[in-house]
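Lab channel / #folding
Pinned by the channel admin:
"Please post every new chain as: sequence first, then the structure tokens as a reply. Keep commentary short and put observations after the output so the thread stays searchable."

First post following the new format, from NK:
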Amino acid sequence: MERVDADQGDLQCPNCAGQCRYSPVAQGLQCTMCGAVHSLDTADDHLAAAEFPYDVDLPDAEPPLPQVKDLSDTRAHQCLTCGGEVLFTGPALSEHCPYCDGAMVLSDQDSGYQTKALIPFKADQDFAQRQALDWVAGRLAAPGDLNVVVSQARVAGLYAPFWTFDSTEAVEYWAKHTTGSGDNRRTRSLSGHMRIHFDDVLMPASPHVTPLIRDGILHEFNPSDLRPYRAGYLAGFAAERHHQTVDEGLRANGADKTLLMRNRIKQHINKSGVHSIRYQTDITGIHYRRILLPVWILHYTYGGTPMKVVVSGIDGRTFGERPFSKWKIAGYSAALAAMTIAFGIAWGAGGLL
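Reply from TO:
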């Protein structure tokens, strides 16, 4: 499976020759004509969780895949707004970018690296829309008509590219520890050694995977849910290729890795008031996966501002952007002020008794 594009015959129903698309509910390819469901399971599904070694001292010699040429089977679209290249397989059609809702045009310039595995969609579009409306219903100070607007949102199902990284790191660190305050404030220097093992650290593999999209999917990743890449899983959905080398992926996620390292060092020191952390590390045992993870993105506009709600295609976890009602905020503020005044009056009256 060296390419993302598919033989269109693989997506045809063997019963009636109708076109199939992947059904999250049926967990298989479902014919749009006769409704028959065809499994994509293979005897090698357990191999999808395999990880691949990477040596930081050797150049990344993995060649990119050829450009997509047969646009009748898999169509590469380029967004005119954010510049992203997105693939559509089988019956999936789109005039809008799944990431930013910008206009898209056909492109034959897309190339990338081999997808190792993916987690198929488990939540369908109807479920995603219900999750989004439930999320809106729970927003404090939301405009009264927000649920109506979100119910009419444009919905896009997307397989977003991610990395998983393993590594073992021998760390030498230096930090400062401050205690007390005022004249009793004291700052001391600390240093130490530790060994850290990172397992299945999930990182975005595209600048288009925003923190909102990332946070909507990070928490329920389970390697046992991975399946070997098959184009049938993409039928009816969009997907972005992996465009980063392993080295580029490591560097692009350097800030997140630094945050993880600092948190581990703080846990190792196990004191409050730790700051000014510096460290150096010797990294060994790097392993990686190139995977695709499913996400629903609902695009809507409120008051002229484009916003989105993101629903994990794995478990329905929902995050989003939302407007606030200035009238409700004013009402809450007035109510809080009235409660504060009433409490003050009651407290004062109690003191006079």
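NK: The two ends are 83 Å apart (CA to CA).
TO: also worth noting, Residues 8-322 form one domain.
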